[in-house]
Design goal:
Blueprint (H helix, E strand, L loop, with lengths): L4 H23 L16 H10 L2 H19 L2 H25 L5 H24 L8 H25 L2 H4 L6
Helix pairs in contact: 1-2, 1-3, 2-3, 2-4, 2-6, 3-4, 4-5, 5-6
């Protein structure tokens, strides 16, 4: 577990980028009107990038820090619960799939799993908060949307890995 100044600076930049992406995305109108808490989740490209380049521990730190930072900025405790559930679920499944199956499965497939699980977790939180099991009827639409979102995020992650400067993506940064 090496915490060099270079590593901390790179992770801080990635945390800031993920937070900015999340904040901008939160300003957009709902992409799925039947489930307004569902998002494209572009910040997950940063999370998957961190999993691939820096490792699992750093990815969880970025996810927790991003959610806390955006809570402080937006002050929306209610939305924080949805965001944390979605982010942690996506991070958990992407971490597991990356650790066990990559490169036998692609980053796009890993991202799709993360997006689908994130949206399912958000739906489960909505059901729990609203005590409305009828919201589970949204799962097919939410899951289809998650596949689309996961493809977009997976492609974006591949582009980040390919085009970010080598000093940021150097594998020696990984634990």
């Amino acid at each position: 577990m090496r915490f060099s100044a270079k590593r901390i600076a790179a992770l801080a930049v990635l945390l800031a980028l993920a937070s900015i992406i999340f904040l901008v995305e939160s300003l957009l109108p709902p992409l799925l009107p039947i489930a307004p808490y569902v998002k494209l989740g572009l910040a997950n490209a940063i999370v998957l990038f961190v999993i691939a380049v820096f490792g699992v521990r750093d990815a969880f730190i970025v996810v927790i820090a991003k959610n806390l930072l955006t809570l402080l900025i937006l002050g929306q405790t209610y939305a924080f619960i949805f965001n944390l559930a979605g982010s942690l679920s996506a991070c958990l499944i992407m971490t597991a799939l990356y650790t066990v199956f990559y490169p036998r499965i692609s980053l796009i497939a890993i991202s799709v799993a993360g997006a689908v699980l994130s949206n399912i977790a958000r739906t489960a939180v909505a059901v729990a908060i609203m005590d409305a099991k009828s919201l589970y009827v949204q799962l097919p639409a939410v899951s289809i949307f998650g596949v689309f979102a996961g493809i977009v995020v997976g492609v974006l992650t591949i582009l980040l890995i390919k085009y970010l400067p080598e000093r940021l993506t150097n594998p020696q940064n990984k634990d």
